[in-house]
Amino acid sequence: MSHLFPHTLYAEDQPLAHTILTTHIVFRGFQSGAAIGLLLGSAQHSLSLLRQRRAPSPLYTPARLAFLPATMVRSTAVGAVVGTALMAVALPGRMWRREEIEWKDRSWRLLENKGQQEVDAWGAAGAGVGAVMGVWGRRALVERGWWKGVVGGAGVGTMVGVVGYMVWRYGVQGGKWPDDETAKLEM
Hints:
By secondary structure, the protein is mainly α. It is built from 7 helices and no strands. It has helices at 17-54, 70-95, 100-112, 114-137, 139-144, 146-172, 181-186. Helix 1 runs antiparallel to helix 2 (70-95) and helix 4 crosses helix 6 (146-172). The protein is globular and about 65 Å long. It starts with 16 loop residues before the first helix and ends with a helix.
């Protein structure tokens, strides 16, 4: 998302500082809540599978063994909404009575950080793909609560995007950037 905002040479000239920082914080709240919701949903689904194996019931069907069960999508959606709401409240609390230059400096540093730009791009792309997959893959879930399919899919997608970023940057690229000073010295 960083590429959507103008970036200046100096922090004190940074426009849209409040918008940039608010967007960043709310998106991080969404991602954090989605991660916690996904973990809790995974645990809940795993426990339900263990209980069903101990005492077979007619509820145990192959549909319950789907790649991403509805329980996980719903809990991810709720976690993402709660995380977003908490961070939306925390930001004004943290930045209360801060001077404009502090908003500009924080925003400028977010835009200056290459790693932050890359993780934002991967996370946003994953959220978009996940939202579409959440609607497409969970029609029954969407019919009962459409927002849970969209938001839960976006939450799972953003987690997949972040994991993809980590594999790309630290696995494939070895944590280095093509224009690193260390890369130039090694050549």
